[in-house]
Amino acid sequence: MTATAARRRRWLSAGGVLITVAYLLPVYWMLATSLKRSSDIFSTPPDLFPSPIALTSYTETVVNHAGIGRGLLNSTVIGVGTTIVTLAVAVPAAYALARLRVRFVALLMLLFLVVQMVPAVNLALPMFVIFSRAELVNSFAGLILANCSLAIPLAITILRPYFLSVPGEVIEAAKIDGCTTWSAFLRVALPVSTPGLITVAVISFLGAWGEFVFGLALASDESMQPITVVLAGLTNSFGTRWNDLMAVSVVVALPIIVVFVFLQRYIVGGLTAGATKS
Amino acid sequence: MTTTVAPPGTASTTPARAPRRARRWGDHLFVLPAVLFVAATVLYPLVFNVDLSFRDVGVAQIVNGGGEWVGWENYADQLGRDEFWHALAISLLYTGLAVAVAFALGMALAVYFNQRFPGRNLMRSLLLLAWILPTVVSANVWRWMLDGSYGLINTLLESVGLIDGDLFWLARPVPALFAVVFATAWSFTPFIMILLLAGLQGIPDTLYEAAKIDGAGAWRRFTSVTMPLLKPVNLTALLLCFISTFKTFDTVFLMTRGGPGEATMILPIYAYNEAFEYFRFDTGAVATTLMLVVPLGLSVFYFRSLRREELS
């Protein structure tokens, strides 16, 4: 450990900052544009920093546009609904596949992984026909069901490793103390797997919040559309009002960014675990 | 320590075994909802889709049901259409290019952020923001970044002399394809970086030090130590990225809707248009069913490489 090694590290840090800033330039540009006046967005060369900072895109466009408020509300309902159903269905399943005496564990895990390879369009098309006949098009129930179709298998693949890491002796001990399988699950396995549960809840919510294909195909009625579909529609009606469009984009991205900043350690592990572990 | 002491565990587990076996079916109740759910929301729609693909389904049949059985007619129609093959070719081209760009960038970032320096964990996490941002948002931002007259990308390219005058990325076929490839790669790169970093951390430092002593430079160490040892991880990451990119719909749909002309008409958008633009749910079902072959075929190799990675 010498002075040269320390200097090298400082340079590496500086390079890392440079790479990160350059890479996230689009995110910054979204925010910067949203804070500009309409007259400032077309200046050449573009102003890197908005001056003056104008909140009009937020205070006038975002707040006053009925479709945006409705879309945010719809997305919240769909996101919360998807998260609750996913947790209720996936958590016991993942626990059983990790810790209980269940048949065909390998086959079921394979099924839950394969299902994640299916493109959303492949499900949206038949779902539209099925839901049309069952009168589930343009309903929260239909949209939540559609979102759960992909969220539940993902949740199971993420959660199973967490339950596998719960020592079997702990569960056995609880059973010897008189716990049933169910209460051992609720009172012993769940509390020690809280990080996994948070990960799954967060990822289910974020997935549903950002989901687009199901919303597009299964909610033709504007009052039922999630915010992602509303935003896609605004790209036509707003035209080149880029500051307004970026302001809406910021609002759509905001919950994701907030959750990411505060719960980042849960997400980073979960994202890759779901992709690589069986 | 006498012989009367049974090996630990045997005595206590034997009496417990009988009731536990009886309880087995109760344990299955934990999995049952998930299995039913996946059967109802994934397997049933997929089978239903195959059924649709063999019928004549127009707007009237969507709600009322029915639809005359027409056998392979819809398949013959699709397979005889140039637009279908064009969409498949564009899909493979788009996916291949995006995966190549994302993998090269992801590898470069992974190698860089595998070095030890203050702040690297924070920076790694921050980069993942590009991956978890809703695609609707990033596609929208890229449309603005790539604006012909006022876009930041053109300003940057002009300032270094790479282009002269306005370049309307999304209005011309080849630039539009590059644009959607680049926007897609931007989202996928941090994800690949994280997958590869996990692999890089498994390579012992001693190997690099030995290579250094043997006089290998940085590039030589990368090609002779990193790449060979990372091979199983690379394969898994490539396959996973290819499958996920092939499924991508939002980014391209929001940036170009498949245009200009058919320049970025990837298969998912083609299938979506068949059903939801032209209300041909039957041929749309054919297109989606055929489209499924690519990810499912590749997933076989993916699972095989996953298993190999776990063994190594």
Automatic annotation (TrEMBL), chain B:
Q: Where in the cell is it found?
A: Cell membrane
Please give the GO cellular component terms listed in this UniProt entry. plasma membrane
Its placement in the membrane is given as: Multi-pass membrane protein
Query: From its record, what is one biological process in GO terms?
Result: transmembrane transport
This protein's source sits in the domain of life called: Bacteria
Q: Where are its TM segments located?
A: 29-47, 84-113, 125-145, 176-198, 229-246, 284-303
Keywords carried by this UniProt record: Cell membrane, Membrane, Transmembrane, Transmembrane helix, Transport
Q: Which residues form the ABC transmembrane type-1 domain?
A: 88-302
Residue segments, region Disordered = 1-20
Low complexity bias located where?
Answer: 1-17
Q: Which Pfam families match?
A: BPD_transp_1
**Signal sequence annotation:** none
Q: Does the keyword Transport apply?
A: yes
Q: Which family does it belong to?
A: Belongs to the binding-protein-dependent transport system permease family.
Q: What is the protein name stated in its UniProt record?
A: Sugar ABC transporter permease
